[in-house]
Amino acid sequence: MKAVLFLVFGLLAVANGKIFTRCDLARKLKASGMDGYKGYSLANWVCLAKFESDYNTATINRNSDGSKDYGIFQINSRWWCNNHQTPTSNGCGIDCSALLTDNIDVAIQCAKRVVRDPNGISAWVAWRNNCKGKDLSSYVAGCGV
Fold it and tell me: Which helix (H) or strand (E) holds 73?
């Protein structure tokens, strides 16, 4: 029964997903205190979201270890959220389906939790491979942030 409910709520969450524009996401993240959070500029967060999900809150990807990554920041089910399918530490104390809606407040809070760990923003492979050490000013250019 739990699996059926999870599937139903998961499908509803996906149906309510949103693809942000670069600037809409930058403004939302700025308003949520992400600019400078734990030393990472707003441009770092926008770049991370670009390469993790292409700004799409409904993105889900499967990993080789069986875990899945969810939402705009691709939060991992093994460590940070509970997908009721794979073992988890659930460090953010949330259902993974909460990361798939057009309201990214839960995703932002969980991303803040992830970045407080010793790996910081380097926990995201896409950030390490695509954003680290690069000029990221284009990710917030023209956004009024």
Answer: none
Helix (H) / strand (E) containing 70: strand 68-70
Q: 89-143: per-residue pLDDT in tens?
A: 999 999 999 999 999 999 999 999 999 999 999 999 999 999 999 999 999 999 9
Q: Which of 52, 65, 95, 102 is catalytic?
A: 52
Contact residues for 51 (Cβ-Cβ < 8 A; gap 6+): 126, 127, 129, 130, 131
Buried b / exposed e over 9-22, threshold 16 CB at 10 Å, is: ebeebeeebbebeb
**Is residue 8 predicted with pLDDT exceeding 50?**
no
Choice among 54, 69, 95, 117 that is catalytic: 69
Q: What tokens does 87 get?
A: 């073992």
CB 131 within 8 A of CB 51: yes
Whether 54 sits among the annotated catalytic residues: the reply is no
